[in-house]
Amino acid sequence: MSSTRQSAKKFLIFVGKLLFTLVEAMIFGLLPKPRKNVAGEIVLITGAGSGLGRLLALQFARLGSVLVLWDINKEGNEETSRMVQEAGAPQVHAYTCDCSRREDVYRVADQVKKEVGDVSILINNAGIVTGKKFLDCPDELMEKSFDVNFKAHLWTYKAFLPAMIANDHGHLVCISSSAGLTGVNGLADYCASKFAALGFAESMFVETFAQKQKGIKTTIVCPFFIKTGMFEGCTTGCPSLLPILDPEYAVRKIVDAILQEKLYLYLPKFLYFMVFLKSFLPVKVGLLITDYLDIFHVMDGFTGQKKVLERRSVTGVV
To answer: Which residues are catalytic?
Structure first.
């Protein structure tokens, strides 16, 4: 009898929480969620030397955040540092770091902790793309894709998450890709690394939630192509539904999602619909839609950005 009462009580509590959560979601679906203040927050951005990383740094500078900039390209990173200072950031700290090397990540992370303090917003943005068919892609380039696009996230989380947990305050941001939601012809290694990054970020969100670490937030970003050069030469067969994104627009949306503490951000919104369709449509129907949208051929004209593999600064994702 006692067990039955306990089960009934548990069920009623569940229903109450479910109704409250649904009402809350409906309210914030109609009204914009309040944006948090990030002035004075220590924001670390990997791949800050160009493209999306640089634009994110400029946005957070205008919001009064302390910027920690990581990039393997020292010259580009220093240029971003100069621009961020001019944009009004209270403090800027630039570090040369090869995010594909675990030892380098841990070494530079220790420097940051000693010289700047505890990172409270971590944006894993650095990435590379080979743009080659699977059998044409050298093993070392595939390994590098995983090292930069996914494994670097493991090392940065290991380095900075403990302090966030101790302070019960932190925000983990994963710049994944629409290629982390569905397979793309000509992007096998890139898709695999972005699926892994998304899965890891989502799993860590669940882990922090299960451990009742309510002060730790997560935002996972999955954009289509962004006009910054990383996917130079790529095209879209349906610009009305899957446009190549303006970088300033993409960054505004990403920062807004962080400030509102959204878990997921897909750009453009049509991606939400595509993911929904993928969950129940027959495979052949999905392939027909993919063919109609000309997604099979988005990589046909790929030329990429000059020296993008050496610079390893993510500038656009698909």
So the answer is: 190
